[in-house]
Amino acid sequence: MSRPAxxxxxxxxxxxxxxxxxxxxxxxxxxxxxxxxxxxAVEGLAEAVGFTGSRVPLFTLLGALAGGIGGYFLQxxxxxxxxxxxxxxxxxxxxxxxxxITFEMGVLGGAFAAVIAMLVGSGLPRLRHPLFAxxxxxxxxxxxxxxxxxxxxxxxxxxxxxxxxxGLQPLLCVEVAA
Amino acid sequence: xxxxxxxxxxxLLLSIAGWRLAPRLFLAGWLSAWWWCLGLVxxxxxxxxxxxxxxGAWGEAFAQLAPRLASRLPWLLLALVPVLLGxxxxxxxxxxxxxxxxxxxxxxxxxxxxxxxFFGRLVVYAxxxxxxxxxxxxxxxxxxxxxxxxxxxxxxLGAVDLLMSxxxxxxxxxxxxxxxxxxxxxxxxLGTLAASVGPRPAPWRDLGNLLLMWTMSWAYLAFMQFLxxxxxxxxxxxxxxxxxxxxxxxxxxxxLVLLQLAIPFxxxxxxxxxxxxxxxxxxxxxxxxASALNAAWTIVPSVAPENLHALWLLPLLxxxxxxxxxxxxxxxxx
Lengths: 178, 334
Known about the structure:
The structure holds 2 protein chains of 2 kinds.
Chain A: E1 6-13, H1 16-28, E2 35-37, H2 45-48, H3 56-82, H4 95-121, E3 145-150, H5 158-166, E4 172-177
Antiparallel strand pairs in A: 1-3, 1-4, 2-3
Chain B: H1 2-21, H2 23-54, H3 60-70, H4 73-78, H5 81-85, H6 87-90, H7 92-95, H8 107-112, H9 115-133, H10 141-163, H11 175-197, H12 204-232, H13 235-238, H14 242-245, H15 249-268, H16 271-274, H17 277-303, H18 310-325
């Protein structure tokens, strides 16, 4: 009998501290793509699974710059090139008047870029994930803490991973089918 | 630390030469250095009161520093006496009442800007400052809230009377708020600097975000005042900006945009700056220098916009005032 394809092995813990310790142990054991799930943000958990930082801030900055420059260009083009109107003798390129819109468009572009970069970087949106079929996983929204070792990383070996997870004294250790 | 105080006194004595050369400029410079020091003390208290009302760990630096800053406040308040003696020289409304003919309803402004009432108000402001700054290290929440409210009123009126009335017919309803936000920014910078040279770790990112918030608040208020006046372009309103944009002071204004907005804003967006006290310290120092420049830019061009003696006199006055009226050590002994 052949085994079904495996997405990963998951252990369930009762407290945030146990999960934090498990995540650190997994990182120390060489698992670089381990994933942790908790009902609330746990201080230091992201660093424990080896999350070093994301490129969301960079995309936010680029989006803000694009929005700001675009906002200024829009006003400049409308006021200077496309439809120049003398308003009370002010210069056509009235830059002080353009600053508020430029700033607002910068904020808008930055916010859009941040949200889109976060979704794309997280692999969202998706309708199905192997984890949702795992037993108990709905408790990750309530009072349980999970650590999953993914099968797609080079160091992953089924038996070793299972031994490792059982060694952490979890409440439960389950296979996650792909 | 006595040495520094002495040095400050010597610098102020040297600056008396400016009194001989350009009396109005000297008075305006004295007022701006004084206003800067007072703003640091009160601005630090603003953050301390906010911290008292919100809690958390970010404000420990302000709760420590504010009472220490207030220790020299009586001397600072006394240092306003030279300006009081120079009121007839410094404030056009004190001697020349002809501007009242150009006002539609001269009754109230004529009464408000008359010498006896003006001096009386200043005494009340000084007493209010003294009451505000004699707060304990941990004031009760009610006291902190009352202090913030009182500061908003007294700080606004003080800015209007001492700074705005240098140009008698000019007024801006945002002036008080711009001044309050500027003081809170300077106080936050001083508190952050004190924390970064102190012995204890602090939530640096929170302090960095606090500075970012005050920087943006000040920039928003100051720019909106400018934008509305620029857009309307009325002679009575632009009177305040003309000496700041059509004399050498335009470079000070440009420096302000860079030093108090562009550079700190960009730096404080980066966690690489906010999470490291050694880097955050430099942003705080930059903001302190900018706040001194801002005090000079807000006051001196209204009085003597084209006097080049400002170039040596103002640094002397500001350095002297800082050494004399700010505590030598920013943090208590660990």
